[in-house]
Amino acid sequence: MSESGKANDLLAQIPKGEKKGLPPVHLWNPDFCGDIDMRIARDGTWYYLGTPIGRKPMVKLFSTIIRRDGDDYFLITPVEKVGIRVDDAPFVALTLQVEGEGERQVLRFMSNVDDEIVAGEEHPIRVMLDKDTAEPAPYLRVRGNLDALIHRNVFYQMVELAVPRDQDGECWLGVWSSGVFFPIGRLPA
């Protein structure tokens, strides 16, 4: 079967129904059918056969059936599981809405596929530092073990909101959301 035939076949297998919400991909365990030439770039652009997928509804549909097992990413339906490549994270947090302030502050993010994520216990923020450049790479948990890379402009907004806090004997700069403090950088002693 051709690569485009595989993608169309995969789309046809996504269960349709009247229920809202995401498909239960964590419950599906079909046979692995191989890799397809699909890639999600660091900026959130989805590519198929080297060409950007320009139809946002298609990208949004594919984004509902992505699953991560270990370090590998798959598009999965009840009867088929295909491997895809993800350069960094499968989603990008593009906007930030701030409600309240201090410990009662709520940070509401919107992803590149229109998922709304409120940072908190179930959706933590973490910042990784590049081992070579020490440049921060901030992430937000979207669902399961899938993250969104927080866009640089949104991260700058978070830095503007950051407050110092002593934690485990160290002073951190971080943000509050939904009653949880998320460190974004250690302050010098």
UniProtKB/TrEMBL annotation:
Domain DUF1285: 23-89, 90-184
InterPro entries per record: DUF1285, DUF1285_beta_roll_sf, DUF1285_C, DUF1285_N
One Pfam family this sequence matches: DUF1285_C
Superkingdom to which the source organism belongs: Bacteria
Gene3D superfamilies: 2.20.70.10, duf1285 like domain (3.10.540.10), duf1285 protein (2.30.270.10)
Name the UniProt record assigns to this protein: DUF1285 domain-containing protein
Species of origin: Pseudomonas kuykendallii
